[in-house]
Amino acid sequence: MTRFSILDANPIVRLTVNLREEHQPMSRNVANFTDLASKTALAWIIAAMLVIVPAGISAAIAEELAGLATLPGADDPAARGLAIARETEGRDVGFGNTSANMKMILTNAYGETSERELRNLVLEITEENEGDWSLIVFDKPRDVDGTALLSYAHILDPDDQWLYLPAVKRVKRISSVNKSGPFMGSEFAFEDFSSTEVGKYSYNWLRDEACGDRICHVTERTPLYEHSGYTRQLSWTDTTDYQPRKLEFYDRKDQLLKTLTFTEYQLYQDKHWRAHDLFMENHQTGKNTRLVWSDFVFQAGLTESDFTTNALKRAR
Amino acid sequence: MNNGWVVTYANWIIKLRWLVVLVTVAGAMAMASGGQFIKFSNDYRYFFTDENPNLKAFEQLERTYTSPDTLLWVLRPNEGQVTDPKILAVIKEITERAWQTPYSIRVDSLTNYQHTTALEDDLYVRDLVIDPAEVDPSEVLRIGTTEPAIAKRIISDDGTTTAIFATLKIPRDDITATAAPVAHARAIVDDIRERFPDIRIELTGSVMLSTSFSEAATRDLQTLTPGMYVVLALTVWFLIRSISGTIATLFVVGLSAAAAMGLVMGWMGVKLTPPSSGAPTIILTVAVADSIHILVTALISMQKGMEKREAIVESLRVNFQPVFLTSVTTAIGFASLNFSDAPPFRDLGNTSAVGALVAWILSISFLPALMSILPITAKGSLLRQSDFMEKFGEMVIGNRRKILVGMTAVLIGFASLLPQFTFNDRFVEYFDERMEFRVASDWAADNLTGIYQISYSLYAGDAGGIAEPEYLDRLEAFANWFREQPEVVHVATFSDVIKRVNKSMHGDDDSYYRVPENRESAAQFLLLYEMSLPYGLDLNDQINVDKSATKLTITLNDVSTEDMKSIIDRGENWLRTNAPETMYAYPAGQAVMFSFIGISNFEAMTVGTGVALLLISGCLMLALRDLKLGIISLVPNLTPPIAAFGVLALFSTEVGFWSTFVIATALGLIVDATVHFLSKYQRARSEQGKSAEDAVRYAFSTVGTALWVSTFVLIVGFALLAYSPFRVNAMLGTMVAVTVACALIIDFLLLPALLITLDGKRKTDKIAKADPEPGATEAPAPA
After folding, report:
1. Cβ contact (<8 Å) for B534 and A108?
2. Are A127 and A115 spatial neighbours (Cβ–Cβ below 8 Å)?
3. What CATH number is attached to the domain comprising A119?
4. Does A28 score more than 70 pLDDT?
5. S-S: A292 plus which of A103, B54, B646, B777, CB 3.0-4.6 Å?
6. pLDDT per position as a tens digit, B70-86
7. Are B179 and B93 in contact (CB under 8 A)?
8. pLDDT, tens digit (0-9, with 9 covering 90-100), for B599-638
9. Beta bridge partners of B555
10. Residues A35 and A137 in one domain
């Protein structure tokens, strides 16, 4: 039993109960009965999760979790920061492959907006020191309908990227170290939403603090990729589900450039959290981009053959 | 004796002299204490009102694309080309350090230019120079001078000069925000200069323009204002030869300037700019005139044997009304600057107007009180000057016909020169060679690129429409047309980007260096290209968010405002003839704003000057209670600016927007001499029943000395502004000085001749009849 599952699950129970109490102040007796019922139910759920979830996780993950039971203390912030990142990654291990729809809403300093629609397929790569594979199909704007981007993410080397251009019916390989430019003119850089592997950064835990109605670990992470657009990032990872809640991006002169806020989390397959609303605000230009995810499908039946240059052409 | 209440007032001032000094000084100091809140404006946009259409277009462009604030390091090795590996290493170093500039959002240089190449279906996008030691200099030179995006902008055709551009997004609400980036940029310059004495490096860009405004203002306040104080002290002492009188005068002017600056700039929170930093100098100058009139009359009376207090009372009696009148007219003149379309000049006008009024209050309260405290001895020199004025008066009376004809001919001659004037507002030339910005910008323009730019946001009709071949084709034609214009140095256009990408998408086949065949291809190529660009080198500075418009920017050489307007007109004409209606665009840019600053202020100030003239003439007629004298007074009030600009026309027919403020500023001052002369003339005619000739003699002998003394101070004061490194202030000061000088000549020659000729026939008794209570003519405004 880890310190985290016990201590951090409890506040949620209390919170849920409190909410219920507030919402039903009129009929006291019924409320009490419901409270009792829900408390019992929640206790069962938690108990079940404590048994089922660890059982479903591979031995390697169990090891990692066990490591977390002794999450390094504040006297070793680097190790503590790394452990937090490992925990986040560990909790998403085994998602296998997913497909989802993505909508981007771009807003300039003038308040003018523009939308992009894409589909995103991801294949989990379990090999150590390799990033996931992804295939992004562009649906809107109309002019780029059917254009598809295939990426093999690497930890410290430039990603391998191919783009299929239906207008000329050709696959182009992009040879560029750049992952830091705006993705489709948005405030997201490709590196901002491509897979976050632990090995991409070095870590330094700073503090724990309240974030919304949760407690977050605040960790500073420094990109190890030479051509990253950032000097560092500050990440807020909640202590309950170990999901990112907020990310701050600092530019090359170490000035706050952007803030990314993650909301609308949903749990898939009892294990995999996905934020459905990612709001990126550029503090320097006054522009922002909202990224809205929908229609997540886990274990979508994708295999490596769906992530090849040949598959790109069929992606539409 | 008439003006009985002024005498009572004067005696009362002398009686309560200590209290008066204490209260007035305390009041002025309270106003001046606002000085601690004074802040400089670091924004050239402050020269434009929010309603200014050119500013609106500029800000719309800024919000749609990226910030227009730039810093530009221009460097040129004394020998050889910038593609030499050693120089490339320096460029790369500056590029990396430029990224550290506070508020920087983009850096463009020869080394980080994103060069696109293709090998079959592989697209390579990378820095043009990754390792300076391993490049082929001739290849870098070839690419640099042939890629339209950087040729002639980042690197000169001969490869000897290069620039590193940093784009900054400076917060608009923080007026001190430019200090940090400028300090960083200058530190780079200093460091490179020290380590590489063989490389010349200069710093320019719009951020430096903004900084130069505040630095010029600081410089004016630090050098001109104290300088003016010293000049005033010496001049006043030399003219009145009384140390106590000089000290008293310096107190009056110093307190007036400090109180006005403290009140308007401090308590009312108006931001200090180069034009308004001229206000203390102007107030010192204007305020001294009041004091001199009161002092000189008192001193002359003392020399004629009057006791000190008696002389002070007499001086107040004689000068109360004219000093009030001149202060009000001066304030009206300055206040009319509120009609200006350039807020810094409104601030200048308001501060100076407040200063003129404070000076008036101090001159009739603090000054006589202090004089009665301080020991004052009058020396003989003033009398001699007075003798000279009387002789001068005789000469004018004797030669009045010749003077009348001669002066009229000269004035008509000058007037005929006026239509030649044209506006020229090259903002680089607002600063003289003492300012780093001017030297750097001139040098950069000579060797690489100009600073004057015009941008057009060209709309494509619908979202994503910028990929439409017809649009790109029109865009390219527009850019090519601009490239044929002699004034144009460089054109940055999206059509060049898409042409290059199209070529790369076809294995770098030169025959594909053209607009893609269809919209989908262009859009998809663009998507691919954008994806491969790094942070800060994206296309968001030239494509809007829904890809419905692109920004085309032309860089011009050192063009005049007329040429600028001409190319704007021709550009508009081209669009109307050759482009669909959706593509019509309003030109925007700093250069465009400053091109129209002359004409917009000319229109505004024509009204403002007219209103000031009406008000001032009205005041004059009301005070003189004589329509005929009022009409005659228009001549010496209106002709000096004509004469002054006539003199200027002999040297140059190009004027900046400063010229629109000359008349309004000078009007309140030149009226002063007329007021003093006419009030003495009228007093002699009505009080003493003298003939026109004798009244002129009386005016010369009583007020002649004070007039040329105060005019001399005005000339020195405004001429001192000529030493401002901010040429707008320098030219305004020079022209006001010339105008005031012309006014004195006209007051001393043309006005007496006119009076004798036009007013001489009027019989003295008729005046007396028309004005049964002579004292009423000099009844001052309510106490």
Report:
1. no
2. no
3. 2.50.20.10
4. no
5. A103
6. 999 999 999 999 999 99
7. no
8. 888 888 888 888 888 888 888 888 888 888 888 888 888 8
9. B453, B490
10. no
CA distance A142 to chain B (A): 8
End of a domain among A22, A37, A53? A53
Task: Report the distance separating Cα B550 and Cα B573, nearest Å.
Answer: 19
Q: Do residues A125 and A265 both lie within one domain?
A: yes
Q: Which 3-62 residues of chain B touch chain A by CB within 8 A?
A: 60
Looking at the fold, whether A139 and A227 belong to one and the same domain comes out as: yes
pLDDT value of position A31: 41
The Cα-based distances of A299 to A121, A122, B239, B246, B506 in angstroms read: 11, 10, 99, 95, 39
Same domain, A48 and A124: no
* B756 neighbors B778 (Cβ within 8 angstroms): no
Q: Does A60 reside within a domain?
A: no
Residue A198 lies in a domain: yes
Give me the residue from A107, A173, A287 closest to B123, CB to CB: A173
Number of C-beta neighbours around residue B480 at 10 A: 12
Q: Strand B422-423 to strand B654-655: parallel, antiparallel, or no bridges (unpaired)?
A: parallel
- Contact assessment for residue B579 and residue B474, using Cβ atoms and an 8 Å cutoff: yes
DSSP for B23-41 reads HHHHHHHHHHGGGGG--B-
CB B153 within 8 A of CB B492: yes
Angle at A36 between CA A32 and CA A38, to 5 degrees: 115
What does residue B433 show for φ and ψ, rounded to 5 degrees?
Answer: -65, -5
Q: What is the pLDDT of residue B108?
A: 93
Whether A180 maps to a domain, the answer reads yes
- ipTM value greater than 0.85: no
Q: Closest to A181 (Cβ–Cβ): which among B521, B535, B543?
A: B535
User: Is there a single domain that holds both residue A21 and residue A148?
Assistant: no
Interface of A with B in 16-75 (CB under 8 A): none
The DSSP code sequence of B674-731 is: HHHHHHHHHHHHHTS---HHHHHHHHHHHHHHHHHHHHHHHHHHHHHGGG-SBHHHHH
This prediction's pTM: 0.79
Domain span at residue A237?
97-313
CA distance B423 to chain A (A): 34
Tell how far CA A251 is from the center of its chain: 21
Could you tell me which of B568, B544, B546 has the C-alpha nearest to residue B494? B544
Extract the tokens encoding B201.
Answer: 């490096």
Q: Tell me, yes or no, whether A168 and A268 share the same domain.
A: yes
Token code pair at residue B121: 């279906």
Question: How far A52 CA lies from chain B's nearest CA (Å)?
Answer: 43
Average pLDDT over residues A289-299: 93
Asked if residue A124 and residue A38 are part of one domain, the reply reads no
Tokens of B612: 């000031």
B199, containing H or E segment: strand B199-204
> Is there a contact between B605 and B339 (Cβ–Cβ < 8 Å)?
yes
Q: Give the span between the Cα atoms of B153 and B162, in whole angstroms.
A: 8
Interface test with A, best of B106, B545, B547, B550 (most A CBs within 10 A): B545
Are both A225 and A298 inside the same structural domain?
yes
Compute the CA torsion angle B718, B721, B723, B725 (nearest 10 deg): -160
Instruction: Work out how many domains chain A is built from and give that number.
Output: 2
Q: The tokens of B725 are what?
A: 């490194």
The answer to the question of residue A82 being in a domain is: no
